Each structure stands twice: as C-alpha cells, then as structure tokens.
Amino acid sequence: MANVTVIGAQWGDEGKGKIVDWLASRADVVVRFQGGHNAGHTLVVGDTTYKLSLLPSGIVTGTLSLIGNGVVLDPWALKAEIERLEGQGVSIEAENFGIADNCPLILPLHRDLDGLRESAAGKGKIGTTGRGIGPAYEDKVGRRAIRVCDLAHLDELEPQLDRLCAHHDALRAGFGEPPVDRAALLAELREIAPFVLQFAQPVWKRLRDVRKEGAKILFEGAQGVLLDVDHGTYPFVTSSNTVSGTVASGSGLGPNSAGFVLGIVKAYTTRVGSGPFPTELEDETGETLGRKGHEFGTVTSRKRRCGWFDAVLVRQSCAISGVTGIALTKLDVLDGFETIRICTGYRLDGEVIDYLPSHAAEQARVEPVYEEIEGWSETTAGARSWAELPAQAIKYIRRIEELIECPVASVSTSPERDDTILVRDPFAD
C-alpha cells in the first residue's frame, strides 16, 4: 500500500496539522520521526481546537500514533499533553499510542543549558524555544543520552550519569551554575518512568509488522526543510534533519518507505525567530498578512515574521526533500490584495542567482527579485473545488507550480478539515 510523508517546505508553521489530520483519517498509522515538543500543530475539528506539540496528529482520530527514535522526548511535557487531550475527550492508551524505546530523553538539565546559552548569546541568539531540544540532540550524538529504555533500569544508571554529568557540570560551571543534582534527577525519573514505560516498545518492529499487513503509514514531519540542520539557514536552524530522508533513520523503516512526499507550503512566507528572511515585509502589508493569517506560534505564541511567497526557497526545499507534490495552504489570506508579489530569484552583489547560498552572511545580503501579478477581490475562504476559486487565484497557483517545478496536490482554503481542494490523492497507489 502507498505511504505518505508530510514535511514543511518553508520554515515550519505551514499548516501541517490540518493536512496531517485530514490524511490521518485515511491512514492506519501516523509516525513522528524527528524533532521534539518545539513543534506545534493546531487541529480544528468541528467546534474543537486541539493543540499538539509532541503527539502525532493521528491521535485525535484514534489512529495508531507512534513516536519514532528520531524524536527527542520530554517525558513531563508528554504527560502534560496527554492529560490535556484526555480532558478534551481523546483516548490515549497502549493500543493506539507507542514510543520508541530507543528514543533519547530531554531532561531538566537540557532545558537549563538551552536557557543559559541563549541568555549569554547576546546578538548571537539563535531564537530557540528554550525547551532543551538542541542540548538533548547533542547528548544523543555524544553518546551520553538517557533513553526511554533506561527508565526500566534506573538502578543501573550510574555509569551513564557519570558521563552525562561530567559533560554538563563543566558547562554549568562556565555559567556560574552549581553541578547537576543527581539525586533530584533520579527521583524525577523514577516518578515519571511508569507513565512513559506503559507506551514504550520497539517501534521499528511494530512498523515492520503493520507494514507486512498492508497498513497505510503517514510520516509526520516537524518544523520545515529550511530549518534542517544540514540544509537550512544555518545556524538559525533546528537540531534535527527535517527532510523526508530522515523517515528511514528516525522510524526504523528503510529508505523506500517514505512513499509520496507531500510538501506543505503557505501561499506566502512566514518565519519565527532569528535568521535570514529575504522576502520579509516590515510594513503594513506584512502586518496585514500576519493579522489575516493569525500568525502566532502554536508552541511559543511568538509573533511570526511575514513576507511574500519565495519560489526560490520552495523550489530548493522540494529538490532537497524529493517532494512529489505540494499542499498549498492559507490561500484565503491573500484575498483582497490588489497586487501580489512572488520572489523568482535573488540579487547577490549585483548578480542574479536562483538558489539560497549556504553562508549566513550571503544569506543576509540577498535581495529578492520580484514578479508582480494581479490579485483578486473575491473570497477563496471555504472553497472546495476549482470552480469556486477566482480565475486570478488559479493563475497564482499555476504560476507557483511553474516556478517551484513541482505540482500542487491540494489547496487549503481555511483551517477546517474539509475546506480542501484535492488535486491528487497522496495515498493513491
């Protein structure tokens, strides 16, 4: 059966939650394969709004939802999120939810280090969410992480704690902070362990088994390709690989499991936090986009920076992540603009280029080259077929397809699940 991988093809916040929710109703399994609870998805189902930071979006529909080993897991954040969703009537139990037992944990000391670094960075701030994701990934790569499976063996944790604290105590001393309180950390882990362990399992094995049974698997990415630690606007990136290729390593299935790669793309561009943003609009137009699009982060409530659609960046993201088709979201936010601009290239030191350079200084210097097209006065909000779209809106969509060299698979015209124009079914064989 066909699998689908959903990724953000900009800087995150593209509206993945609604698309994944819509696809999850037709999937047998939904899998998170990277990131942490710094991601945020908002699902609107009828009169109810669900805000997810860590749980796969399929959990709302009762679809089997799994957290893969590529995720870094804050067990206390997980518990709080599960309790909140259960309060909204969502059933979460071992039958429909699982966590990879080789998933690294985010600990209080990771949050501490994240905050200390950002506070001391001055103008060098990256703009992290302060939730410990970066330091947790560092410890994973440094082979000193405490993982979910370790929660079942806390009496044997001392050697790992020695390695972990040797590293963190030195860093904390540099910030004038006391050493890690090992006894307090162990006490916190003992308290949370039973809650986490009820869901712990070899996720790779469960995925192998359901795949043999012909299950349709939906892989849910967090953030966006432009925040990828290798391919994004480094150093203003997240600490994991956000590209579709991470499905293999972050879930335990092979590289042929990604299936249809659906890139989620806003009809304009937004970014949260620091870093280059070639098409950013620091004027009334940018304010209008933010106001109409309700551009505030799901996790942090930070105001998002807004700008025109950047075809250069999306074309680059689609190439890097092997995108099969895009889901264009928030088209209705552009309703009423007399003219709309699309970035088709960059001018760097007098030369026009068709890609974003790797160096941060050059990224900050590029100037957008714009193409201007006529807007539309009619509304696209709630449209569910091409016939309901203004002709000029269709022209805008077709121009985007040409510029990014990738077809549109669907168009989203409101936060509601059913307000979607389906062009190509990602789950079709």
Strand content: 15-25%
Computed CA radius of gyration, to the nearest angstrom: 22 Å
Extended strand count? 18
Distance between the termini: 7 Å
The number of distinct helices, counting runs of at least 4 residues, comes to 12
Helicity, as a percent range: 25-40%
Largest sheet descriptor:
10 strands, mixed
Strand order in the sheet with the most strands: 7-6-5-2-8-1-9-13-17-18
Write down the overall mean pLDDT: 92
Helical/strand content category: alpha/beta
SSE order in H/E notation? Answer: EHEEEEHEHHHHEHEHEEHEEHEEEHEHEE
Contiguous low-pLDDT stretches (5 residues minimum) are none
Based on Cα principal axes, name the global outline. globular
Features:
429 residues; alpha/beta; ten-stranded mixed beta sheet; four-stranded mixed beta sheet; 18 strands
Report on this model:
This protein has helices at 16-24, 75-87, 108-120, 133-141, 158-174, 182-197, 203-212, 246-251, 284-292, 311-321, 360-365, 391-404; strands at 4-8, 29-32, 41-45, 48-52, 64-67, 97-100, 200-201, 217-220, 260-266, 269-271, 305-307, 309-310, 325-329, 339-348, 351-353, 367-374, 408-412, 420-422. Helix 2 (75-87) packs across helix 6 (182-197) and helix 3 (108-120) crosses helix 4 (133-141). The chain is globular and about 65 Å long. The strands form 4 sheets. It has a 10-stranded mixed sheet, sandwiched between helices. Strands 12, 14, 15 and 16 form a 4-stranded mixed sheet that branches. With 429 residues, it is of the alpha/beta class.
Summarize the structure.
The chain is of the alpha/beta class and 429 residues long. It has helices spanning 16-24, 75-87, 108-120, 133-141, 158-174, 182-197, 203-212, 246-251, 284-292, 311-321, 360-365, 391-404, and strands at residues 4-8, 29-32, 41-45, 48-52, 64-67, 97-100, 200-201, 217-220, 260-266, 269-271, 305-307, 309-310, 325-329, 339-348, 351-353, 367-374, 408-412, 420-422. Helix 2 (75-87) packs across helix 6 (182-197) and helix 3 (108-120) crosses helix 4.
